[in-house]
Design a protein that fits this description.
This is EAL domain-containing protein. It holds the Pfam family GGDEF. The chain is elongated. Helix 4 crosses helix 8 and helix 6 crosses helix 8. 50% of the residues lie in helices and 19% in strands. The chain contains 29 helices and 22 strands.
Length: 701
């Protein structure tokens, strides 16, 4: 039987014998039958076909040298070589497969007793030549693909921003990618064969010490290392060292990679520093506390509602920590955090600054006794026994209290005040609370109490508007009035504006109160105009805060349209300081009032710095001579000169003049003789309730 027919007839048997040997090849261990036979069957069938084709002596010679003609398409042998490269076979392992294939065919052929005649020898010679040709094609493809993969792999490593390297067992570089060589500013040929120490790497000694466990224990090592550069910059690298094992399992090199993680470490550091909560107590830490305090201060400034800051230090904590150990101390801190938190509202902030120091931020402190009550509740809670290691442990707390805005206007100031007050409490015997200072405490609580009461004054109808007559000097008739706010305080009695208007401005209540006064004045101006049979104007004082804020003027046009249509029944009194604040919102508000028919009066004129240009620019209608000039008129001198100058100047500008604080007939007569238009003061009447003012109008000639 010809050898070609023998191969086809015994294909499975040949492959079976071949497979038994091939499975002993190191690279083939663990591969399944299909993977081992992938191209061997095709190679044998191709050889069988080749044995049946006639060939020349030149072709025989070429095949014996592995240089037979190529069809152009990938042969089975070439595909075999490519597959073995992809599967990680070595050259020796790939050649061993062909040796096993040759041995399997020859062994079975001899067992079939094919004889040893010339024809048999010729067939075997051609078989060996064909097999050598297949081996040559397979190895050529193996080498080509292996070189290509090496080139691709090197390109991949070189293009990577990570540092990739291979060291021999003496720490000399066998391979270094472009990223690594660029650090040292050298070509690859100048880097290979050198140690990091010879290259001048600052971290050479640190990195070298990690080689020993990698080599000795054959374990991968991952670490992190700072790497200082010559320019002073210090980067951080995350590096990996991996043992490279030979076929016998011996370490023959150390490979690895290193990645610059400087940006990541910087980000982690920022995150760590900005971490919000204390790991032990789960309370806001110092960073979050400062942020919360800053936000609460801004909120209090915006809403006008005060806040309180507690600084709490534990009395006796160090003794517990020293006696029972740090674990017990940690448990004590955790229980302390829980007890303090249980005393406050959800909206309040309890924080741990560090050690045994805690803080509490109380916002919207509207009840005067709330702070003291809460401080005592915290002290009582801390005075209860703590159970630590099945023992009852007793400590106490010292609390410093400071208030915004009474004590300080900044978070730093508040924290410093509270800390100082806490030490005062501690020095005073511990287990107590102390306000920033005793004097400031009393003033602060009186102020807070008054603010709290002022918030309820308008809803509870404790506020009233009094009216002081403004007399036209030429006729002696009451033609105007100034609306003046009064507070019928339940305990303090009748309170003048100087006692509470400042608080109303600080807390933002001034807008609501001002609107209410305006409504009262507008309604009475219309009523009294009807009684008088002619226009009657009421002057309403407006706080500079209302003009200097960006909040639009409210309700003026509504009141005018409802209560005094078509009449200049209202005048707004402002100070010179409002004119000096020549901001867009001040200009817009004054223009809006003027368009509504509201006249403008400058109060206390002569005590500020308003220029004549401002008087014309803002269309002022009246100037009020400050009462300090009027009261000094009896002694003559400069006051009369100032008053007369104001009157003359105002008239030249087309303005009218009102003198306030007139208490004697002599003052009235002098002002009349000087040409002053109007006057008001105790000579005519003090400010009186609306009903009494109506009586004055009825009694007037």
């Amino acid at each position: 039987m010809p050898l070609s027919d023998f191969i086809r007839a015994n294909l499975d048997c040949i492959l079976g014998h071949w497979e038994l040997f091939a499975q002993q090849i190191p690279s083939a261990r663990g591969m399944n039958t299909a993977s081992l036979r992938d191209h061997a069957k095709g190679i044998l069938l191709a050889i069988a076909d080749d044995l049946e084709r006639p060939q020349t002596a030149l072709e025989e010679d070429a095949k014996s040298k592995g240089r037979g003609p190529h069809s152009g398409d990938d042969s089975e042998a070439e595909m075999h070589g490519a597959a073995r490269v992809a599967e990680g076979f070595s050259v020796n392992d790939a050649m061993a497969e062909y040796r096993a294939l040759r041995a399997s065919v020859l062994r079975l052929r001899r067992a079939a007793d094919a004889g040893e005649g010339p024809a048999v020898v010729a067939e075997l010679t051609r078989f060996n030549e064909a097999l050598d040709q297949a081996l040559s094609e397979s190895l050529a493809r193996f080498a080509s693909d292996n070189e290509r993969f090496t080139r691709l792999f090197d390109t991949l490593l070189s293009s990577s921003p990570d540092l990739n390297y291979v060291f021999d067992l003496d720490g000399r570089l066998i391979y270094a990618n472009k990223a690594l060589t660029s650090i040292y500013g050298r070509a690859l040929r100048d880097v290979v064969g050198k140690t990091l120490l010879e290259l001048g790497a600052p971290a050479a000694a640190d990195l070298r010490k990690y080689f020993r466990p990698v080599i000795d224990d054959k374990l991968t090592y991952r670490g992190e290392m700072p790497y200082p550069y010559a320019n002073g910059k210090k980067n951080v690298y995350d590096f990996l060292l991996v043992p490279v094992l030979s076929a016998t399992g011996k370490v023959e090199a150390v490979a690895g990679t290193a990645r610059d993680v400087t940006e990541r470490k910087e980000t982690e550091e920022r995150i760590r520093r900005s971490a919000n909560y204390d790991f032990l107590t789960d309370l806001p830490n110092r960073g979050l506390f400062r942020d919360r305090l800053e936000q609460e201060v801004k909120r209090a400034a915006r809403t006008g509602r005060p806040l309180a800051l507690f600084f709490i230090d534990l009395d006796g904590f160090k003794e517990v920590n020293d006696r029972l150990g740090h674990d017990a101390g940690d448990q004590l801190l955790q229980q302390t955090a829980h007890r303090i938190s249980a005393c406050v509202r959800d909206a309040d902030t309890v924080a741990r600054l560090g050690g045994d120091e805690f803080t509490v931020i109380l916002g919207d402190v509207s009840k005067t006794g709330h702070v003291e009550i809460l401080a005592q509740q915290i002290l009582d809670a801390l005075a209860q026994p703590f159970t630590l290691r099945n023992k009852d442990v007793y400590i106490s707390g010292s609390i410093g209290i400071t208030l915004y805005p009474q004590d300080a206007g900044t978070p730093e100031g508040l924290l410093g005040n509270a800390d100082q007050a806490m030490y005062v409490a501690k020095k005073s015997g511990r287990n107590r609370f102390s306000f920033f200072t005793a004097g400031m405490r009393d003033a602060a609580w009186a102020r807070m109490k008054l603010i709290d009461e002022l918030r309820h004054a308008l809803p509870q109808r404790q506020l009233d508007v009094y009216y002081q007559p403004i007399v036209e000097l030429a006729r002696g008739a009451t033609v105007k009035a100034e609306a003046l706010l009064r507070w019928h305080h339940p305990q303090a009695g009748l309170m003048l504006p100087d006692s509470f208007i400042g608080l109303a401005e600080e807390t933002g209540l001034i807008g609501e109160i001002g609107d209410w006064v305006l409504g009262q004045a507008a309604a009475l101006a219309r009523e009294w105009a009807a009684r008088q049979g002619g226009p009657f104007q009421i002057s309403v004082n407006k706080s500079p805060v209302e003009f200097m804020s960006k909040t639009p003027v409210r309700n003026w046009d509504t009141y005018l349209a409802r209560d005094a249509p078509g009449q200049q029944c209202l005048s707004v009194e402002i100070t010179e300081g409002v004119l000096l604040n020549d901001s867009p919102w001040v200009r817009d508000k004054l223009a809006s009032l003027h368009n509504c028919g509201v006249e403008l009066t400058i109060d206390d004129f002569g005590t500020g710095y308003a220029s004549l240009a401002y008087l014309k620019k803002f269309k002022v209608d009246y100037l009020k001579i400050d009462q300090s000039f009027v009261q000094d008129m009896d002694s003559g001198g400069d006051s009369r000169v100032f008053a007369e100058t104001i009157i003359v100047m105002a008239h030249k500008l087309g303005l009218k003049v009102i003198a306030e604080g007139v208490e004697t007939a002599e003052q009235r007569d002098w002002l009349k003789a000087a040409g002053c238009d109007y006057a008001q003061g105790y000579l005519f009447s003090a400010a009186v309730p609306a009903a009494d003012f109506m009586a004055l109008l009825g009694a007037a000639p």
